[in-house]
Amino acid sequence: MKKILLPTDFSENSWNAISYALQLFKKETCEFYLLNTYTPVIYHVEYVLVEPAQFGMVDAVKNESLRQLNELKDKIKKSYKNSNHSFEIISSFNTLITEIKEIVEKKSIDYVVMGTKGATGAKEVLFGSNTVHVFKNVKCPIIAIPDGFSFETPHEVLFPTDYEIDYKDHHIKPIINITSHFNTRVNILNVSYGYDLSEKQEENKQNLENYFKKTAYLFHSVSNQNVPEAITNFQLKARVNLLVMINNKHSFFENLFFKSTINQIGFHLNIPFLVIPSKTNKT
Fold first, then answer.
1. Does the reported pTM lie above 0.85?
2. What is the CATH number of domain 156-268?
3. How many helices (H) and strands (E) does the chain have?
4. Virtual torsion, Cα 141, 152, 157, 261, nearest 10 deg
5. In what order do the strands lie in the sheet with 142-145?
6. Potential cystine with 267: which of 6, 93, 208, 228 (Cβ 3.0-4.6 Å)?
7. Alpha-carbon distance 244 to 275, whole Å?
8. How far apart are CA 256 and CA 258, in angstroms?
């Protein structure tokens, strides 16, 4: 059984991500965890030293959170009838990132699916800060769904890689788990800088071939482009439905997301993005 965590703030954006998850995993037996975290506004300011529960504030906020979670569960069951899917609701007085980390560990979560929109909703921001922190801190595959994206069968998956990773099961299985339910082709994209692949890179590439031998795949190599350009240009040529990256230390993924100002990144993602950590809680 797949265990999938769906954080929600009850926004349109988070409903969109939930809808995507329910359709992506419709052929699988899944336990979905609907998570809402809250911290009462007053808790942030001068009442930090006073137990907020004395004022009944936490109770009121918790009750509202539970009410909305139950409504959400009912909405899901009406909209997506699927006997393979079961749901548990979690309402937590905690910060989102801390709670996601704890649940991923405690429940052995397979995927976290969430929206990408920041609280500002500013169009020029690629991802909200919560999404970026989840990429950085949560040791579990994350699928980030852009605002307003309607479900598309992932027929064409784009997987940029520098072949610097010694691929293991926990890197590739989250991709194969998804592609095995659809007629999918995996496009493995390498951005070269005029050098031949090293022996180690060739080995890693061969290893990838072994992993994808039961999947349709193609290798692509492009030069004279940076990674965001290569991804954007590839998307102009092919109708990509899912972008996959492994978040490896010192990789271009890290440079792309954590070393530049988020809203200065040269490409805007308009397709779902599966981010796989280099290490997981299960390894």
1. yes
2. 3.40.50.620
3. 8, 10
4. -60
5. 85-93, 30-38, 2-7, 111-115, 142-145, 273-277, 242-247, 156-160, 185-192, 216-223
6. 228
7. 6
8. 6
In the chain, how long is the greatest CA-to-CA distance? 66
Neighbours of 40 (CB within 10 A): 17
Which amino acid, one-letter code, is at 246? I
For the chain, the structural domain boundaries read 2-145, 156-268
- Enter the tokens of residue 86: 């079961």
Mean pLDDT score of the chain, rounded to an integer? 84
Confidence of residue 121 (pLDDT cuts 50, 70, 90): very low
Q: Can you tell me whether residue 144 is helix, strand or coil?
A: strand
Tokens of 273: 């993005």
Residues above pLDDT 90, as percent of the chain: 57
Q: What CATH number is given for 2-145 in this structure? A: 3.40.50.620
Q: How many residues does the structure list for the chain?
A: 283
Backbone φ, ψ for residue 235 (5° rounding) = -65, -25
Closest residue by Cα to residue 134 from 282, 273, 228, 34: 273
- Of 162, 208, 204, residue with least CA distance to 186: 208
Q: Which residue in the block uniquely carries the two structure tokens 């329910």?
A: 22
CA nearest to 213, candidates 238, 245, 189, 188: 188
pLDDT tens digits, one per residue of 20-67: 999 999 999 999 999 999 875 555 555 555 555 555 666 788 899 999
- 147's tokens: 């605002």
For residue 165, which of 216, 208, 195 has the smallest C-alpha distance?
Answer: 208
